Amino acid sequence: MDCNTIPELNAEAWGDGLVASLGHSRYPFGGSLELTERCNFNCVHCYINQPASSQSARAREMSTAQVKQVLDTLAQNGCLFLTLTGGEPLLRPDFAEIYMHARRLGMVTTLFTNATMLTPQIADMLAASRPHVVEITMYGATPETYEAVTRMPGSYERFVRGLELLLDRDIRVGLKSMILTLNKDELPAMIAFVERYGLDFRYDGTIWPRVDGGMQPLKYAISMEEMIQIDLDYPDRSTEWERLSSEFEGSAVRNEYVYSCGAGVYTFHIDCSGRMSACMMARQPSFDLFSTSFSDAWQQIGELRNKKRQRHTKCETCLVGALCLQCPGWSQAFFGDDETPVDSVCEIAKKRYNLFSTAKLQ
Q: Which band of pLDDT confidence, cut at 50, 70 and 90, is reported for residue 252?
């Protein structure tokens, strides 16, 4: 067969098929690797960012050799899909070396970036060894709003320039946004911006506390009423909530296990110092990959998945549990444990259920 007739790989469909073939087996075929906590932005809502010049944050980062060692270990243990994230990954001067090492190992890579540090040379490298997708966060449709969020003068122009460097090379790009009090009024303009470029766009109003325990980001969170209004204003969102509400209508989720999501089943997270956890947000417990083998860490995460609830909470009998975003990550972020429900997460699930389901809660 002429190689030119082989269809392009649809990585999402291929991954879905792999999950289906695995059935109930655990297998670490997808992970995220945090290259740094540092960022050239100082976004008001960020859950992790440290200053680009922070020596203490830099000292926590793995060396180039250590990152390559981790990548080799991931490949040996069957990791196929890898997301490179931060902070801002491109802050690392060895980013190109790290990226190409992952690609040579055969990994299907996704890059999370703000795009402002992209250069023609980096874009050329990405074009020569293409990622699955580059996901770029958009903070506003105007320089004023964008830079009110990033607190970095000139960042909007650099974002557009970085985006166009990728598009000029036909690199697949997806845009995403966190909807905040500072940029909520520009959501229609952001959607129009994305449509002009013909790109995929996802957006959300869910804001997390910082991983160091800081609650500062929450002051920029939009209200539940504003979140619901966004669901109503955009048909793609309302249609999806109607579908989900119908699918799970009246089904109480009485899962006896703490973890009911996919974290630690097919996916994992590794932070910038080489500590592995089940999820990017549920970071405890974590396992040092330089003192514990990957297989042992994966086994211990599997034991975490078998952890049963130790407390009685309202989640046990909740009729909208299947629609709710409540998880150990939320509980850890707000309360430092795995089980305490976060009231705001519960309430938005109930509001959506009452709005989009044919049934109503009492």
A: low
Query: What strands lie across the sheet with 287-288, from one edge to the other?
Result: 200-204, 173-178, 133-137, 108-113, 81-85, 30-34, 267-270, 275-277, 287-288
Do 295 and 241 sit in the same domain of this protein? no
pTM assigned to the model: 0.89
The closest of 108, 182, 118 to 147, measured between CA atoms, is 182
Instruction: Kindly state whether residues 31 and 85 are assigned to the same domain.
Output: yes
Q: Is the pLDDT of residue 242 over 90?
A: no
pLDDT band at 354 (very low <50, low <70, confident <90, very high): confident
Inform me whether the pLDDT recorded for 214 exceeds 60.
yes
Same domain? For 77 and 198 the reply is yes
Distances (CA, A) of 330 to 208, 271, 275: 8, 18, 20
Please give the residue range of the domain that contains residue 323. 223-258+310-362
- Provide the 10 A C-beta neighbour count for residue 282: 24
Write 345-349 long-range contacts (CB < 8 A, 24+).
346/314, 346/318, 347/224, 348/224, 348/227, 348/228, 349/320, 349/323, 349/324, 349/325
- Cβ atoms of 58 and 38 within 8 Å: the answer is yes
Q: Any idea what DSSP says for residue 84? A: E
Mean pLDDT for the chain?
A: 89
Which amino acid is it at 202? Answer: R
Strand 108-113 relative to strand 200-204: parallel, antiparallel, unpaired?
Answer: unpaired
The terminus-to-terminus CA distance of the chain in angstroms comes to: 62
